[in-house]
TrEMBL record:
InterPro entries with a match to the protein in the record: DUF222, HNH_nuc
Protein name from the UniProt record: Unannotated protein
Residues in HNH nuclease domain copies: 320-373
Length: 425
């Protein structure tokens, strides 16, 4: 029925039949023979929801362009849609944005209706297809869709960020200036005297602030454990922000910087086009220039998707194994697709140490506490990657290449981006 609606439209009464079928399902008492049947129904309903979202966007696009919404004097399509659907204007604007992008995303639309991608992918790729990039996006949409179908959503976001960065380079877009113009911060008081903060920062500035907040919030968490204090993570972050202000007043202007303010992941040789913050945000090498001499950043050099060549600001590679694994894996590596971030994960041996497993980056992985500390949740006999010997000479040469890259700039990126980015998951 959904496929018929997508192809023929809704004038044949198929929409009324669909509504009747949904009403009939709602009237039934859910009953499933097994957990497998229940799981299958959950996934099937999500795919149907995605198809219906595409259908709704197509019809909404026609409604928007025909100006039907203006017949009663509504000031905008969003306000009319929000009023008649009892939703917020914000939600209505999001629906209209998707509807207006749909005609520019034929390959993505087909992938969503086929169940290969989600509505989130539709919105993600739609955000990349700006008027300035529309022509390039039309050329590369099929490549992007092919890669997104085999990636976790978080990795698809990184892939699209790389594509946007390279497209903007091709188009000579003033990205740095545009980001600087968008940066803003506001502080206001509520009626009861609380201070409300709101704003946005460029990727590197944001990484500096969030990393400092994370460190102090973790200190507060450990202190709360000792004292038995019960606070949410959000409450600790609020206190951490105040603590940041206290520490900035106490620190001398020329005081020693104890830790790097943020981490950048860069590539060497086979991963030469890799340049992003540890949280996965894609940046340009040129954006790092002002931080090179200030010793404010920690660099992690990769060669390929799993081999760390060098971690800066560490006495030896052996002492940096844990940090290398955290930055490489970024999230829990359990095969279920767990997305618990590195900050809340343990680093553990793949082949247990008691069974002869070595302590190296290749035999280590991130696992969240649930998947690491509960035997019934751990995966059995996970594969151990091939060991690659990283010598002091390898590390020294990699550092030299990175030092030269800082001066000369990283080589032009492959175009369009493909598997060489997608493999870094």
């Amino acid at each position: 029925m959904f496929d018929t609606l997508l192809v023929m439209g809704t004038g044949s009464g198929a929409l009324a039949e669909l509504e009747a079928a949904v009403d009939a399902l709602l009237a039934e008492t859910p009953c499933h023979e097994s957990g497998a049947h229940l799981h299958a129904d959950v996934i099937s309903l999500q795919r149907i929801r995605a198809k219906l979202g595409v259908l709704a966007a197509a019809i909404l696009s026609e409604w928007d362009h025909s100006l039907v919404w203006a017949a009663d004097g509504s000031r905008s399509a969003a306000s009319r849609l929000a009023r008649d659907t009892h939703s917020s204007v914000r939600c209505a604007k999001q629906e209209l944005r998707r509807a207006r992008q749909l005609c520019h995303l034929p390959v993505t639309r087909a992938a969503v209706t086929a169940g290969d991608l989600s509505l989130e992918h539709l919105d993600l790729l739609g955000s990349a297809c700006t008027p300035e990039r529309a022509e390039l996006f039309a050329e590369h949409e099929a490549t992007l869709v092919d890669q997104c179908t085999v990636l976790a959503y978080a990795d698809a976001v990184r892939l699209v960020q790389y594509w946007c960065q390279r497209a903007d380079d091709v188009l000579n877009m003033p990205v740095k200036e545009r980001r600087a113009a968008k940066a803003a911060f506001y502080a206001s008081s509520s009626l009861d005297g609380m201070v409300v903060l709101n704003g946005q920062l460029d990727p590197i500035g944001g990484a500096i602030v969030t990393e400092a907040l994370r460190r102090i919030e973790h200190e507060l968490y450990l202190a709360d454990l000792k004292t038995g204090t019960r606070r949410t993570a959000a409450q600790r972050r609020a206190q951490a922000l105040v603590e940041m202000a206290h520490r900035s007043q106490a620190a001398p202007p020329d005081g020693r910087m104890p830790k790097p303010l943020f981490t950048v992941v860069v590539g060497d040789r086979t991963a030469q086009q890799l340049c992003e913050l540890a949280n996965g945000t894609v940046i340009r090498p040129s954006e790092l220039v002002e931080y090179f001499d200030a010793a404010m950043l920690e660099t992690v050099l990769f060669d390929g998707p799993s081999t760390v060549l060098s971690v800066s600001r560490r006495r030896s590679f052996t002492g940096a194994i844990r940090r290398a694994i955290e930055v490489r894996d970024r999230r829990c590596q359990h095969p279920s697709g767990c997305d618990e971030p590195a900050a809340r994960c343990d680093v553990d041996h793949i082949k247990p140490y008691r069974l002869g497993g070595v302590t190296s980056q290749f035999n280590g992985r991130l696992l969240c506490s649930t998947h690491n500390r509960h035997a019934n949740k751990r995966d059995e006999d996970p594969p151990v990657p091939d060991e690659r010997i990283v010598t002091r000479l390898d590390e020294f040469r990699a550092r030299i290449r990175w030092k030269e890259a800082k001066t000369l700039g990283i080589a032009p990126a492959h175009w369009p981006p493909g598997a060489e980015i997608a493999e870094f998951g």
